[in-house]
Amino acid sequence: MSIDGVDIQPIIGLEIHVQLATKSKLWCGCALEFGAEPNSRTCPVCLGLPGALPVLNQAAIEHSIRVGLALHCRIATRAKWDRKSYWYPDLPKNYQISQFDQPLCSDGHFEFKHADRIRKVRIRRAHLEEDAGKNDHENAAFSAIDLNRAGTPLLEIVTEPDFTGADETREFAVQLHRLVRYLGVSHANMQQGQMRFEPNINLRIRRGSETFVTPIVEVKNLNSFKSLHAAIEFEIDRQAREWRETGETLTRGNKRNRGWDDVKLMTLPQREKEESEDYRYFPDPDLAPYEPSPAWVSAVREDMPELPVPRTERFISEYKLPEQDAPALVDDRATADLLDEAAACGGDKATLGKQFLSFWSMHANARQTSIAGLALAPQRFAQLANLVVEGAVNATAAAQLSEALLSDDRDPREIAQERGWMQSRNADEIAAWVNAALAANPQAVADALGNPKKLQAARGFLTGQVMKISGGKADPKVTGELIQKALSGASAPNAAS
Amino acid sequence: MSQPTTSAKIDAARVAHVAKLARLSLSAAECERYAVQLTQILSYAERLRRAPTEGVSPLSNPNDVVNVTRTDEVAPSIGVAAALANAPQKHGSSFRVPAVLEGGA
Lengths: 497, 105
What we know:
The structure holds two protein chains of two kinds.
Chain A: E1 2-3, E2 6-19, E3 56-57, H1 58-70, E4 74-75, E5 82-85, E6 95-98, E7 105-114, E8 117-130, E9 134-136, E10 142-146, E11 153-159, H2 166-182, E12 195-207, E13 210-213, E14 217-220, H3 225-246, E15 256-261, E16 266-269, E17 282-283, H4 294-302, H5 308-318, H6 326-331, H7 333-344, H8 349-366, H9 378-389, H10 395-405, H11 412-419, H12 427-440, H13 442-450, H14 452-470, H15 476-489
Parallel strand pairs in A: 14-15
Antiparallel strand pairs in A: 1-2, 2-11, 2-12, 4-7, 5-6, 5-17, 7-8, 8-11, 9-10, 12-13, 12-14, 15-16
Helix pairs in contact in A: 2-3, 7-9, 8-9, 9-10, 12-14, 12-15, 13-14, 14-15
Chain B: H1 12-21, H2 28-49, E1 69-70, H3 80-83, E2 90-91, E3 94-98
Antiparallel strand pairs in B: 2-3
Helix pairs in contact in B: 1-2
C-alpha cells in the first residue's frame, strides 16, 4: 500500500497455541477440564512439588505429529525437552517444559485460497509445551491462582513472516482452526482459550531509494479471529505513524510486546520486565528424549483423513456444490464422510450434494445437530437421491420424504407409493391433465401460439397449471412433451387475424 | 541455548543479573565473591570444552533411554485441600499471592 508518497509493506508472522484434545495433562494424569473447581485437577507433578517426576503423554505426541504431517513438516527423528525459566505465580516450577532447539515438527508449509489466489505460507516449526495456570486479578489487593490448567498440552505453531496483511492472516487462522478440528487433535474452542494467536508485525517502508524497517511488535494472546484482524490493522497504522514521528527502525533488542484492548480497540504497550526474555533454556534432566520411529510416523500418515482444503475442492467438482456452500459441508468431518459414503452406496452425486445443502441441512439445523447427527444410514440418502434422479418423485415430494425417513425405516419408494407422492409418467393420465390445463387457460394458449416472445412464459405457466391439477404428480419431462404436442395440434386463434 | 562464551569472565554485574533472574538476593560483597568463584568454575569447564568431541552428539540426558511415555488416561488428582496444604495463603480454592499485573511473562 502507498500512503503519502511512501510505500508500506507489512511483514507479518504468526504464532499459534493450540490446546491438544487429550484426556489427561501433558506430564501427569490429572484431567483436563474447563471450569472445574480451582486446583481440583492438580497433583504433585503439575503443582511443581519437589521430587515429582513428569511422564510424557503419548497421545500428545501423536496429535502433534498429526498436525506436523498435515502442515508438510519434517518430523524430528529425535526431540528433546527443555526448561524455559521465568518467574510468574501461575508457573509453579518456575520453568515451563518446552522444546527449544529440537522441536517435533519443522520446515513445513500450508496452502490455502485467499482472494482467488493460492497462498503458500511456510511453517517454521511446531513444538509441544505445557500451559501455565490461571491468574485471577479480580481483587486488586491480591491475585488468586488456579493451577488446573498448568500442564495442559499446547502445540505452538510458528509461521515464517509470510503474511502481508490482516485479511490473509485471519484467513490462515480460520483455515488452521478448521484443520486442527478436522484432525481431531483439538476442540479449538476459542471462548475457552483453546486456540490463541500472537502475530509479529512490522513494516518495510520505501521512500524513494531508501528502505526502512520498523521495530517488530508481538501482540500477545489474541483469542478471536476478529481481534487478530483488528490488532494487525491497528499495528500497521500505528507503526507507520510512529515511524513518521520518531524514525525509529528495527535494531537488535527493540522488539516489543503489546496487548490488545478489546474495548478501546487498540494495542497497548505491555509492561516489559527488564531481561524478561532471558529464559536460560537448558535440557530437562527429568525427561528422556523422544524418537518417533519412522514406521510409526508412516502409520500415522496412512491414517490421516483427507484434509479440508483439498476435500472442499473435490466436493465442488464431484458433488457440483456452489463454491460458497462447500466449506460448510466439509467442515463437519462426520457429515462430509457421510456424503462420501452415500455416494459410495450408488447415490447420484450432484443430487446428493443438492439435497445435503437443502432439506438435510434444514432437518439438522432444526434439531440442532449435523446431518451426520440425524443418524441415518448412508444408503437412505442414496435411495432418496436416486428416486429423484429416476423421476419417480419430484423435489417437493423428496423434501417431504426426507422428513418421513427420519421416523420411518421403510424404503422411501414404499413410503412415496403409500402416500401418493410418486410421479406419474403415464402418458394418458398426464394428457388428461394437460388438456384440462389448456382448456382452463385460453389466454395462455393464445399467447403461446400467437406471440413468440411470450411462448416461453406461457409454456412455463401451463406446465405449472398441470402440476397444480395433478397435485405435483405429473412427470415434468413427459408433461413438457405433451404440452408441446397439444400446442402444435391446436390452431392459433389469433393467427388468422 | 545460551552457552557460556569461550573463556567467560564472570564479573559482579553478571552475577547480579543472574541473581535477579533467579530471584536471589545477594549483597554487593557476595556478588564480588561469587564472581571470582564462578569464573574459576567456568575456567575448569573450559578445559572440558577442549576435549575432542567431534562426531559425538550432545548428551541431553545422562540415562540412555528414549520414549518414556504413558497412555492418555486420567488418574485421580490429590484434591483441593491437599493441593493447598502448603500454601502460605489461600483464597477460596485458589492460592493467594501478592497482586501481579497482567502480561508479566
